[in-house]
Fold each of these.
Amino acid sequence: MRPIKLKTNHQFNPLGIDSPQPSFSWQLGEDAGRFQQSAFELRVQTESGVVWDSGVVAQSQSHAIHYAGATFESQTLYCWTVRVRDSDENWSDWSEPATFETGLLQRDEWQGQWIGETPRMESAAMPAPTLRSKFKTEPSAVKKARLYATAGGLYEIFINGERVGEDVLAPGWSNYDKRRQAIAYDVTSLVESGENAIGASLGEGWFCGYLFYKREREFYGKDPHLLLQLEIEYTDGTRQTVCTDENWRVTSDGPILMSGVYDGEVYDARKELGDWSLSEYDDSAWHTAHVYEDKGAQLVNKLKPPIQQIEELKTIELYESAPGVHVFNLGQNMAGWVRLKVNAPRGTRFTLKFGEWVNDDGSVYLGNLRTAKSTDTYICKGGGEEIFEPHFTYHGFQYVELVCDNDAVVIEPDTVTGIVICSDMEQTGTFECSDPLVSRLQQNIVWGQRGNFLAVPTGCPNRDERLGWTGDALMFLGTAAFNYNVETFFEKWLCDLSDDQLASGSYPDVAPDVACKDGFHWPIDAISPLSVKILRGSLYGEGGCAGWADVGVICPWVIYERYGDARILERSYDSMAAYVKFLEDESNHFLRPFEGYGDWLSIDTSPSDLFLSPTPQDLIGTAFFAYDADLMAKTAEVLGKKADAEAYRTLAKNIKQAFCDEFVSANGRLAGDTQTAYLLALGYDLIPEALQGRVVENLVLSLERRDWKLSTGFLGTPLLCSVLTKFGRTDIAYRLLLQKEYPSWLYPVLQGATTMWERWNSWTKEDGFGNTGMNSFNHCACGAVGEWMATTVGGISFAEPGYKKVRIAPIPGEGITWAKTSYASPYGKISVDWKTEGPAFELNFTVPSNTTAEVLVSGADASLELPDGITLVGETASGIECIALPGVYRLNTSKLRVAQS
Ligand code: BGC
């Protein structure tokens, strides 16, 4: 037995590492059986010798072990191996070695210049510039070649006619004024001996393109520009550096006439530049590149995951909604673009528009795109089959409307193929159950994440937003972390958030911040004067919106809990503390002011004013304030900051007292009497134990009054089922989950939804489309029930950070007779499947090596015979509690008590 799956900073053999103390992780694999690691020994070395020998470290974690050796050298290959010991002093073999390579660690090692097209006067989308240069290799053979790349804007890089890397929309989005992401590529196989050429085309992307609904552009700069450094190492030990500089050549006379994230791309194939990235290409018609000033932003190695193409979708239906208007249905709402395959005469123009739904007459519904043009145009060069995919844009869509200006051209289903793109996270969670609608709901939740975890956690992938809305990230965090490994995705986004933290300590509404920045204002004429008052903070660029900004405290904690690496808390601590200080400063006797977005899109919100939340805004703000203070206390505790922990505990106590005095009646009725008010109070532990029963009763009454239908918005929805389970009413949670009538989770599924909708009423049979001013069919928030499905129906959660201790506790309920769930934890795969047949209950589960599991066997009593590896801990009203060692188990009981109403 030896450790396997060795990862550095969560990647297999990564390049470009720039963190001084990267993290190491490994697994023990199925062969390890019941092995429990009691110690490890880890060695890191270079060609010149060992740089870190951890010695024997008595630690059972095999995840988030941080390097503590000699300072790294730039561009150096490090090799590491690890072995582990069990509690009986038996050592495993040493693992196979894993590697990581450092990037350019010092800013002054970047030798190149930022280059681009001659600065333009216009403030409008311009043709994409293409840049190139030639270089000659030394006579010695190339041992390895690395390309380090970054841009203000987006790039596609080529060496000798070959595309570098598989990432798209690279290098992604960050606050470019402060931090630019650089990517390291292994280009050894692309560099040829002798003459070579390297080049790139540039898109405006988030750097200088349109962002947000007011069609403002150039948030970070006016023109896209590029910084490349190619490092070649020869077998004789010599090195060569090729970088972007004033000798590069540039042209904007290429085929990409326009390409913007929101608007799409216009591509004229007649203007293609030919083999422009080959050395023999004649670039005499090009001109000299412009050198842009280095504004001194930090250059950081881009954290995984890159945005990549993850799937292709075939057309499932093709028809004409009007003569010559071809509609392709790809069967799945998604983010990405299409590959267009055509054969048409030179000059033929294809116009493609992208929508998420269709109107009654079969035409594509484009009403919800607002100012985003979301249109790709392709003009043929002629002479045979042509294939086009856009370069610097993406769309959110299921349907494609294609119009060709030549009626004679044959349009077929395979003219269009859907290319799905997403920040390519490792899929970790799976869930399915006996109800096909609920299984489809899970698929819709996953597709919602695929469509919205794209560079940053966006609200929607289609209209003129696609922004990293803090609230949307907060609501969906727990579910996101079940479906996919989001550890580094959020590590990076938390940098975006703290980069844009306001001087007051408050966080902006979106990160990277294009809202609070420069005094963004909501369109005041669209909302009532009262809301203008309520929204004070957000309207005037002050951020700090309750349930949105709180992600700055909640996200680091959730990521710590799921993956067990306290570094995320350490890195975020000052920023979190500054936010909580802001909340204290802004509060009056521990009560947060009456402002913010409220329980956004709750079914009871007035259609004429989205900002008038039925759950009082000050109640919401104060609930989050208390929760933040609680999490700060826990965080300080984990980091060993005892005095801080005590101070935050006192703060939390005071806020909870103020909350109860202000918003909770002596008999447990909450101000507003809304489902969300009860859920926040119970979910965030604001109610003294003695009163909890009454508050739960009122929550249940609030549901019964609506005939067991939900009325929650963004803030209440994630808590709905989990709070019911927490207080012993899983039966009602099942009832809500399985509700088919509007409003419910299954109503959209029954209407054919393939992603989660922004509103419960994004479309209803009675009223058709919801308010087009804000109506996406691909939003994550309502999908936040996924976490409860995985933990309570499925039965998998963590009992200790990072799943070092697992909790297996499925609670069967009326309406579902089986469920199968799995989760790829840092320690290996956990799986649970169960089925019921009358009172019989069968529970199968797997506990990975080097963990233990707390197991609840629903309905069983102490007489149940337990297999080797499982010991009984106690009996409760819902079943027996056991502890299981690593292994694969099957348990049967005939006394199931299904959660019943
Ligand atoms: C976004 C949201 C966001 C909200 C804030 C919307 O336009 O798409 O999901 O949280 O604004 O009010």
Note: The pocket of beta-D-glucopyranose is lined by residues 459-460, 465, 469, 471-472, 597, 600, 774, 779 (CB under 6 Å).
Amino acid sequence: MPGPMTSPSPSSNPLLQPDALPAFSQIRPEHVEPAVRATLARQRARIAALQALDAPSFAEVVEPIEELQHELARIWAPVGHLNAVTNSDALRESYNRCLPLLSEFQTELAQSEALYRAYSRVAQHDAAALTAEQKRVVEQALRDFRLAGVALASKPQQRFKQIMMELAQRGASFEENVLDCMNEWQHHVTDAAQLAGVNSNIVTQAQARAAAVGKEGWLLGLDQPTYQSVMTEGESRPLRRVLYEAWSTRASALTGEGRWDNAPVIADILRLRQEAAELLGFASYAEYALATRMARSSGEVIEFLRKLARAARPAAEREFAELQAFAGQSLEAWDVAFWSERLQRSRHNVSQEALRPWFPLPRVLEGLFEVAGRLFGIQIRERRDVDTWHDSVRYFELSRDHAGRAEVFGAFYLDPYARPKKRNGAWMDQCIGRKSLPSGSALPVAHLVCNFLPPQGDAPALLTHTDVVTLFHEFGHGLHHLMTCVDYPSLAGINGVAWDAVELPSQFIENYAWQPEVLQQISAHIETGEPLTNAQQQQLIATQRFQAGLATLRQIELALFDFRLHSEYRPEGVPDLLALVDAVRTEVAVIKPPAWNRFPMSFSHIFAGGYAAGYYSYKWAEVLAADTFAAFTENGAFDSATARRFVDTILARGGTRDALDAFVEFRGRPPDIGPLLRQHGIAV
Ligand code: ZN
């Protein structure tokens, strides 16, 4: 008898409309599991048929598998996305119920001996008939089969499978602990003086929040804009300490009576990763991770980080001494951002918060699209008839001229503002991947997600220049996904790109947010419409070098902690996380945070994201990006021949070739750290 418990029929399930953009506003938590189960069942049947084929060709086995992966990503991407930007208990539950199903399926596929044999046969017998791109699809798949344990005996293979499932769940628990801890936290302020200096929009919101629960005064949350504003502008030292302590002990035993403590989750994750690496014959998880990276060995990564640290250290020491002298006191961790902001303002007469009126979001977007147009000959236009998950979300289409007509080749959603139940930070994610297969084609669609301060009333949202750089960065990832000309989903866009090279396009585009002619274009004062003056621009540009030594060391501290953690972990004993943090700080850091700082407990990049043994890739890619941009500036920042070469060798090539080979083809030599050090004003 039909009743409320009946699953929706496939035809009414918005997740099962494979040829359209996701109907985000229609997707309900109860759609998720039936859609995933139906898709997996259908795919399993198709895979069984493929596995039964005798000596199948590339077209008979590789292309269908590419198609299946595309289809599955297409159904799951909207779910993962909604879980990140409109988290609810019901959606989270559906999402978590499906994670093990998907992980099990992916492992099954990756560990299929029949498919491994079929791909090996294609590589041996059909190679002469394949294009370079097709050959690479097969080679990369064979590599991934081996890394997924396909060559293992059945018992260790089962264990490997189980580990992958458990890791997916532990990663989700890690993220939930961080999010719950942030959502639950609040701080009641009753004395207005405590809020001196804090951004007025944040103060207004905090007041509304207090009023909503019948309280006097202000209720501060632990969202990113509030944290940043208090840390950089809050004049009250005690308030800064309260926020700093809450932020840096997130999801640790020191907060919420240990309810969200990630320590046991981390212990599990490290143990499972090590076990998986050893099953495949690697000494450590770091070695396993490097098998798919541009960097060739652990030694190369550690030496790279230490070389940069050595180059940056004298500058960092000088910068911190200057800061303490300026503040006239010895500084604690919660004072550094505040005094840095003041020093920067006094030295360069620039304050991030004071710049907001010059960067209304619509103007910045227009300028950013202009940059993309000049560099790559593309046009970007908004479409307003597309269904989304929130009123503030916008949708843009990319096109280029083709035989005299504008041809759309991709699109992206922009979800710009912070709001409750949305994961913090900024990121690009794939909504739909590009494919051009005999079975059909699809244009790529991306998600660009930021956490900017929402607009007040009818005025447009106003960004800091840091926000502007963030937007350019995520847009760069977006271009990598959208400008791909690769036909096979496993290598299109950012797929199959070495992790440590994947930040190259995003960090490269950041450079344009610092160019005078671009600043001229993206700035227009909200009241006067005037762009930043030349003097303001020069002052802002000078900030790029401000405390560059300290910033470099902070990144290296995180990177070295992550890499050593994943290369030194030994199964006989969980490493003392805090002792390792301390050792790394002793080696690298100039500013020592308090002993109760528990940043690893909320270090989502390496415990819940894809950056395990890979945080170094930010610096690695910065070197690539600065060296790439140097190739442009040698010929002019908008030089079209250089831009074309960049698109042809890197941006449009996805994972179709080795990252180092691609870079060498673009630059004519291997990467050099010189341009990055010069950009930061750190003497070589
Ligand atoms: Zn990035």
Note: Residues 473, 477, 503, 506 surround zinc ion (CB under 6 Å).
